[in-house]
Design brief:
With 569 residues, the chain is an alpha/beta fold. The chain has three domains: 99 residues, Roll (Urease, subunit C, domain 1), CATH 2.30.40; 315 residues, Metal-dependent hydrolases (TIM Barrel); 107 residues, no CATH class. Helix content is 33%, strand content 20%. It is built from 20 helices and 25 strands. The strands form six sheets. Strands 1, 2, 3, 4, 5, 18, 23, 24 and 25 form a nine-stranded mixed β-sheet that branches. A six-stranded parallel β-sheet has the order 9-10-11-12-13-17. α7 runs parallel beside α8 and α15 crosses α16. The longest helix is centred in the N-terminal third of the chain and has 17 residues.
């Protein structure tokens, strides 16, 4: 090297994202790219001592919902607290562009329900300085972030934009509607989106209970959009579906993949009622890929579940009339009322009213203390029901008292999917399937019920180091899954590997002390809105385009992240 580099990461154990064996070397960074890897490199303008640390590529998170946060914030946390240097937004068919001024309420209602982002936060925080999808990208273009952002065109927004109330009511699209949606989807890809997303699940609803506009969209509508996306030569298709009729649904998705000629990713979860259906889905994906398709099952590193607490969106007593009297009180006042013995007796005696989540949040043999550090693979004997039985109490009584701990800020954990057998062996099988990708962390969404952006870090802490209920996984393999594999899947081939010439998105990690903290509630959204987050320990440095954006969990002043338009060679 003839010139001194901007940054040298010295003497780290490099896990380069290829899946190969770790090795010790220095890494030099010049002008935002890796300029050299070797021994005893020249001194840099800045240096990081990575002795006894692992050095990895920055993580690529392909499933987030920061569509709103990127418009009002430069810091895309909690993902940027988890070593993530690139996020993909616009998943599940929901987003805020394209959007006419008189349709904004419809998209806000949808995002509020589907992704649990409070309406006042969106109404106050969104600048709405766009109408078309291209306008939305222009609004983000040049804005500095602490990581890179890539986008997808959301189907629900297209339907509402083109069809208005007919789209909201899930009416069939006319030929003219289909043609216009296809044109707009392709325009979005050409403007720089890296995908098109849609939802086919009944779980995606507004707060009022209305289904997402894309539920039940006719195959012909999806075919025409997929063809238009394919004609751009870029982007992928992202789909979430219930697979109630697996044969019919997989047939549709295979035809969409064939029509587009583009990669497709499908959400894959283990459901309690059909715990082996996911294997059938992955077998169908493998068969389609053997015939030339490029379909990935997208999986999470732990259960999909919800947090229960008196400060957040859900708790086991939320359908009680007494709870509704205090639900909107400030936390201190709420805790004071909950702490009164007569109020507790009343709430435990009340018959709970019907509620969509009632059966999920009161199944005490499937509700657990979360703990600190959090335990996402709890044994059955740790459930509230099992603990209460051992102490001769009702689970309601015990659960209530546990939720009062810490000033009413304690959190219980209810795994929903990926936990049918009471362990994560199935998740290990999912992650190791050759046609799967790691994702589904939902950063920026469900801010009152889950904090799965930390599932990225969980891949390292639990699966490669701490697991005591089954097999562990290789650290180099896990790093590859979070970096190279995700970057390649969405067409960002300039990152995801530590190699000369690649973008200098890098993590320096104190692996032995890497830790996910317990969730906490922050009131830092627009209008004082609250969200639940998890911080992490052990990320010594996260580097984006050669600049250190985070040191030991604290943000620096550097904001080198940008909107990325289109694929990268």
């Amino acid at each position: 090297m003839s010139e001194n580099p901007d940054l040298v990461i010295r003497s780290g154990t490099i896990i380069d994202g290829s899946g190969g064996a770790p090795y010790q070397a220095d890494i030099a960074v010049t002008d935002g790219k890796i300029s050299a890897i070797g021994q005893e490199l020249p001194k840099g303008a800045a240096e990081i001592d990575a002795h006894d640390r692992i050095v990895t590529p920055g993580f690529v998170d392909v499933h987030t919902h920061y569509d709103a946060q990127v418009t009002w914030s430069n810091r895309i946390n909690p993902s940027s607290w988890n070593g993530v240097t690139t996020v993909m937004i616009g998943n599940c068919g929901v987003g805020f562009a394209p959007c006419r001024p008189d349709q904004r309420d419809k998209l806000v209602e949808l995002m509020e329900g589907v992704e649990d982002i409070p309406e006042p936060v969106l109404s106050e925080g969104l600048p709405w300085n766009w109408e078309t999808f291209g306008d939305y990208l222009d609004a983000l273009d040049g804005k500095p972030f602490d990581l890179d952002v890539v986008t997808q065109v959301p189907h629900a927004a297209l339907r509402v934009y083109v069809m208005g109330e007919r789209g909201v009511a899930r009416e069939d699209a006319t030929p003219e509607d289909r043609a216009e949606m296809a044109r707009l989807a392709a325009d979005g890809i050409r403007a720089g989106a890296l995908g098109f997303s849609t939802s086919r699940t009944i779980n995606h609803r507004t707060v009022a209970g209305a289904y997402t506009p894309t539920l039940g969209a006719a195959e012909q509508e999806l075919i025409e959009i997929s063809k238009a996306v394919g004609e751009t030569g870029s982007g992928w298709l992202q789909v979430i579906s219930d697979f109630d009729d697996p044969v019919e649904e997989m047939g549709i998705l295979r035809r969409l993949a064939q029509a587009s000629g583009r990669p497709m990713t499908i959400t894959v979860l283990q459901r309690d009622k059909r715990p082996e259906l996911w294997r059938e889905t992955m077998a169908d994906i493998a068969a389609a890929n053997a015939e030339g398709a490029r379909i990935f099952g997208q999986v999470l590193t732990r259960p999909t579940g919800v947090m229960l607490g008196f400060e957040i969106s859900l708790n086991p007593f939320m359908a009680c009339p007494a709870w509704r009297e205090i639900a909107d009180l400030p936390q201190a006042e709420k805790f004071a009322r909950l702490s009164q013995p007569d109020f507790k007796a009343r709430i435990l005696a009340e018959r709970q009213e019907d509620h969509l989540m009632h059966s999920r949040v009161t199944q005490w043999d499937r509700i657990f203390p979360l703990g600190d550090p959090p335990d996402y693979e709890p044994a059955a004997d740790k459930s509230i029901a099992a603990r209460a039985a051992r102490e001769g109490r009702t689970p309601e009584d015990m659960g209530y008292d546990m939720l009062l701990e810490g000033g009413g800020k304690a959190i219980l954990y209810r795994p929903l999917s990926n936990y049918a057998y009471g362990n994560l062996d199935t998740v290990a099988d999912m992650m190791q399937h050759p046609n799967s990708l790691i994702g589904l962390g939902d950063g920026g969404a469900h801010v009152g019920v889950l904090t799965d952006a930390s599932a990225i870090t969980y891949m390292l802490t639990h699966w490669t180091r701490d697991r005591d209920r089954g097999a562990k996984l290789s650290l180099p393999w896990a790093i590859k899954r979070l970096t190279h594999d995700n970057a390649a899947a969405i067409g960002l081939n300039d990152r995801g590997l530590l190699a000369v010439g690649r973008k200098a998105d890098i993590n320096v990690i104190d692996y032995d002390n890497l830790k996910i903290r317990a969730p906490e509630v922050l009131y830092d959204l627009p209008g004082g809105g609250k969200r639940m987050v998890q911080r992490t320990d052990g990320y010594d440095a996260t580097i984006v385009a050669g600049q250190i954006v985070c040191r030991h969990g604290e943000a620096t002043d550097a904001l080198p992240g940008r909107l990325v338009r289109g694929a990268r060679a």
